[in-house]
Amino acid sequence: MSSPGTEEAAGLNEPLLANGNNGVDEAEVAKRKGALKSKDDNWCWEDVGQPDDVAAPPDLENGDGRRPLLFRNRKVKNIVLYPFRALILIRIITLILFVGWRIKNSNSDVIWFWVMSIIADVWFGLSWLSYQLPKCNPIKSIPDLVTLRKHCDLPGGSFQLPGIDVIVTTASPIAEPILYTMNCVLSILAVDYHVGKFTCYLSDDSGSLILYEALVETAKFATLWVPFCRKHRIEPRAPESYFELHGSLYEGESLEVFMSDYKHVRTKYEEFKMYLDMLSDAIRERSNIYNRMETKKVDTKATWMDNGTQWPGTWFDPTENHRMGHHAGIVQIVQSHPNHMAQPGPQEANNYPLNFEDVDLRLPMLVYVAREKGSGCEHNKKAGALNAELRISALLSNAPFFINFDCDHYINNSQALLAAICFMLDRREGDNTGFVQFPQRFDNVDPTDRYGNHNRVFFDGAMYGLNGQQGPTYLGTGCMFRRLALYGIDPPCWRSKEIIINSNKFGNSLPFLNSVLAAIKQEQCVTPPLDDSFVAEMTRVVSSSYDDSTDWGRGVGYIYKMATEDIVTGFRIHGQGWRSMYCSMEREAFRGTAPINLTERLHQIVRWSGGSLEMFFSYMSPLFAGHRLNTMQRVSYINFTIYPITSLFILMYALCPVMWLLPTEIFIQRPYTRDHMVGLVAQRAVFYSQLSKCLSNGGVAHGGQSPYKERYKIQGH
Ligand SMILES: O=c1ccn([C@@H]2O[C@H](COP(=O)(O)OP(=O)(O)O[C@H]3O[C@H](CO)[C@@H](O)[C@H](O)[C@H]3O)[C@@H](O)[C@H]2O)c(=O)[nH]1
Ligand SMILES: [Mn+2]
């Protein structure tokens, strides 16, 4: 990211304009389109042959029974699918024959090695099979936004868009750059969804004043940014990514107006960034002044808010109740619920230097939440934070849908929330859909993807396979849940008449228990007046001991005590009989950043593998838990949780070539003397350690350094 100073000197970058042929590489666009087409050539519509059903006009008067169809499925063409299945069958037969042959020919002198290798071969075979079988019927589901719009925008509201609570989680203003978090928030505030129907919550696990004040400033900048996005329908709506684009096309008609608006907004964005950069110093300075005034009375070095009160969260100079992992719970409504009616802006006025005459200026409700942390209590990391958000949002907005983002991700396609809603409202399995997962895409990965961050086989292979079964697994971010599914309530197709809602299960907040009842009855929540008792209740549901002796973290909410809360939470929901949907959009719904150095990436992989194994050996083991799991879904969960074991056998085989170094037993013909080999191994070890160090530093092995990496480094303080 270049500094504002350089930006000024060079003149603000001009956006690329469709009309100006300003550097848009047509050949590149054509190439990309071609690649997309050839990828899609293998897919065909599933409902071809029954077009009537798809086109059937929905009978809205008869209610749910005749809700419209809001997505269409594509399946792999038979000409590709059948040979693929046949290949799997042939390979299974070959595998069985091979293992049989191995067992019959046990003429090895070293029986333990022979047994190990048989076990390894069987293991490889089974893990391959458990990976392939669920992929026998891949399905791509495409949301139908046109139909959704047609019905939800009908006058009289016969088809109302449901509410959505959108959560951003952050855990540190230093490790997770504030600018990224605020970009994520801005992309949410500017999303294309009915303004009064969604609320944005920032969950700050660090409890720091910087994040709170940054959020307040973000809300101010949003009054310009959001109408600008709406007026010119730009994408993406995270300013940092938008202003960095070099291929963005302006397709609107008012080119001149756009150019002048763009320049103005861009300047304001640079000012906003500068404000964020200076925030830390400003708060310190302010706190010093207040502390100097206060030292006569008390001897503390508090961190002060600009209204002259001490910040209840963490302080720059930590003390007993104001440090990381030990601070009060804070709920601050940064922006309250908008009016019901659209509020178009005035023509050029002082407050609005741009003409927002035909643009709705309202912004959604925005809330800052830092849950309480006490030294004696387990915080349960992200799962604990999300559960606290589930409760606080139940009191404030109680939307039937709940979507969470990691703070290093942002909304890249402003239609994404509408797309997820298509699956939730579809008349076929909509009501039984517990969550809609989107693929994860990353900005900062180098073109060679040297650490495999893009995970294409997983996101563009395995997940479509699961979509043809009971649905994709929950992947931690960019996933919209049905609130009831998170509460551990059965899907309608399995639901009994009586649903038990008590304080043993949900904790002892009466307003929260009432909100659960309201959610089941699908009642709209009205935010109560923020009187003292309500504020006390909000603080209570985010207190560190609220979960104690309840079902939170087990049968309710996100699951605790696992290194990876995501896969196991999705598993619990599938196990109750809900299905999930995988939604990939042509313009990617969300994008984010991934670890791009070897150490961080290895950490991540070890955490994921550990979490998977932990799940396999827990009460949530896919071997026996989840009584309503579809068989292939179970096979897949088994594969996802035991895959790390495969590495042991791979390691064993990798060591085979040097096994003859063992003094007594020589398995493989000796090519050189042992001394030669020891020297060679030592030399290679040095070489590889150098190579990995080089790669982890951004390396030269595959060409230059990614500009995104540079950006991340600068932001990383
Ligand atoms: O105590 C904590 C710890 C983490 N987080 C948030 O959790 C998110 C994910 O954490 P991160 O360290 O970025 O983990 P990643 O390895 O990038 O995350 C991947 O893996 C996790 C499972 O291990 C999933 O939860 C994530 O969604 C998925 O992107 C971030 O927004 C954090 O701010 C908290 O809110 N509180
Ligand atoms: Mn992350």
UniProtKB/TrEMBL annotation:
Residues 1-22 are annotated as: Disordered. Its main location: membrane. The active site is at 205, 566. GO terms for molecular function: cellulose synthase (UDP-forming) activity. UDP-alpha-D-glucose binds at residues 176, 205, 381. Pfam families: Cellulose_synt. GO terms for biological process: cell wall organization; cellulose biosynthetic process; plant-type cell wall organization or biogenesis. The chain crosses the membrane at residues 79-99, 111-131, 637-662. GO terms for cellular component: endomembrane system; membrane. Keywords: Cell wall biogenesis/degradation, Glycosyltransferase, Membrane, Transferase, Transmembrane, Transmembrane helix. It comes from the Eukaryota. Mn(2+) binds at residues 382, 406. SUPFAM superfamilies: Nucleotide-diphospho-sugar transferases (SSF53448). It is found in: Endomembrane system. It is a multi-pass membrane protein. This is Uncharacterized protein.
